[in-house]
Automatic annotation (TrEMBL):
This is Peptidase family M22-like protein. Residues 36-131 form the Gcp-like domain. One of its GO terms (cellular component) is cytosol. The lineage of its organism: Bacteria, Pseudomonadati, Bacteroidota, Flavobacteriia, Flavobacteriales. It comes from Flavobacterium aquidurense. GO terms for biological process: tRNA threonylcarbamoyladenosine modification. PANTHER family: TRNA N6-ADENOSINE THREONYLCARBAMOYLTRANSFERASE, TRNA THREONYLCARBAMOYLADENOSINE BIOSYNTHESIS PROTEIN TSAB. Pfam families: TsaD.
Length: 224
């Protein structure tokens, strides 16, 4: 029997779950414009462990969203996950954020393309088939009318980019599953369990989130 704590902080959704043998038993999450991860994450961790009827020492592993996504959100999640793994001497599992997002689409055919907003018309995207096998690796790309035009089968888009991408991606075989906006820790449970069974872990000391693009800070405004 294994209990895995799943942490997802790559987007506006601060999400934490406890899974037993790959099945989510408790999940706490909130998506806010203000990115309240620093305030909510450790509270959610304590709550899911308590509601699952566990002690923190009962955890067998911690899984964390590795990105791409928000620089600050990823740092918060990874720091918390590393701290727990060090303290409890348990393995750390790194989960592809876009894989988690794609797994929330319950479809039987076509392609699944998870997209996360990367400002303006740029997105982080990846391409999966209906069996959740990767068919095109993660990219940061600018969306145009020609994006994904080579796909003739039905294409399901998930993520927080529908508002800006739907007016541009207008092919008849394009479907936006607009109810699926953010990756959830509840959807990490099966993925993290599969990794745990295969001992597909990362080095706690040296693991870093997958930012995809260098973090850019806006220059300070000049004083008048």
């Amino acid at each position: 029997m294994s209990f895995i704590l799943n942490i997802e902080t790559a987007t506006k959704n601060c999400s934490v779950s406890i899974a037993k043998n790959g099945e989510t038993i408790v999940c706490k999450e909130i998506a806010e414009e203000g990115y309240s991860h620093a305030e909510k994450l450790h509270v959610f961790i304590e709550e899911v462990i308590t509601e699952a009827g566990l002690n923190i020492q009962d955890l067998n592993a911690v899984a964390v969203s590795q990105g791409p996504g928000s620089y600050t959100g990823l740092r918060i999640g990874v720091s918390a996950a590393k701290g727990l793994c060090f303290a409890l001497n348990i393995p750390l599992l790194a989960i592809d954020t876009l894989h988690t997002l794609a797994s929330q689409a319950n479809v039987s055919d076509g392609k699944i393309i998870p997209m996360l907003d990367a400002r303006r018309m740029e997105v982080y995207s990846e391409v999966f088939n209906a069996a959740l096998e990767v068919e095109r690796a993660i990219e940061a790309e600018v969306i145009t009318q020609d994006s994904f035009a080579d796909y003739s089968e039905i294409v399901y888009f998930v993520g927080d980019c529908a508002d800006k991408c739907k007016p541009v991606l207008t092919k008849e075989n394009f479907v936006f599953l607009e109810e699926i906006k953010f990756p959830s820790a509840a959807a990490m449970s099966k993925i993290s369990y599969d990794k745990y069974q295969k001992s597909d872990t990362v080095d706690v000391a040296y693991f870093e989130p997958y930012y995809l693009k260098d973090f850019m800070m806006a220059p300070p405004s000049k004083k008048q």
